[in-house]
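Deliverable D5.2: sample structural annotation.
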Amino acid sequence: MSVVFEHVLTSIAINKDDWCGNYQSSAPATSVTYDEAGLDPIIVASDKTLIGSGSAGVIRGKGLRIVGGKNIILQNIHITELNPQYVWGGDAITLDGSDQIWIDRVKTSLIGRQHIVLGETASGRVTISNSEIDGTSDWSATCDNHHYWALYFTGSQDSITFKGNYIHGTSGRAPKVAGNTVLHAVNNYWEDNSGHAFEISAGAQILAEGNVFSSVKAPIEDASAGGSLFAIQDSTAAASCEQYLGRACEINTLSSSGEFVGTSDISFMANFNGQKVASAEAASGATIKASAGFGKL
């Protein structure tokens, strides 16, 4: 099977859907052996709950895929070892065209491609909470033991609450947001990111409040790239949430990190009117880290 070096760096890519020919035709090819199970996820149907017992719920070498599913809970599991040495080695959790999905106290590590990805078809009422996205890896497209592809929220008309999560050891797309996705990012902890956390493109609609950034080179890659991000940075911005949420927002905090700049258009905040919105508090990174991830029920 033909593969190429991505960005001519240490990561080698599986030629998924002729990715090499479409995007990397000038890169050198080689032959590799990989676990095909990583590209063949477990399908989770509607009205199902998958809960790990204690610290025993580890899924090795396969991810989970929910397509057109509804009323599903994934809780207290660890998904790991999906061909981490290869780009396109597999996604940990994939959602597409689904509704009422709760991902809670889940850990993902050593993933070949995306840790959590929402596909092109709209997924509504998705909550990702108290989970750990561990990007630490011996294989890295940025050659620094940090995984680049972490969270990919680019589905059309997705609605996501992202709360209480611990994201660390990454270098980009943590998350990437586009496709008219409405994302409420609240009380999360980003730590040790050598590149960027938020990457926003056209259609992104993000409220970021009460988050903690520590040693994150760029909390947002480029605020002028399209999309909207309301990043709460002071008391004035916090107070302006009252008309949309019925409460003030919490201020984001940064240490040893770049600037967390937002965009001027906050008209998308009207999407929160009348909705049941997640609460927020002034949280510390240590508190979030202590309660996020697998084996902590």
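Annotation notes: The chain is about 5% helix and 40% strand. Confidence is low (pLDDT under 50) at residues 1-9.
The annotation will be released with the project's public dataset once the embargo ends.
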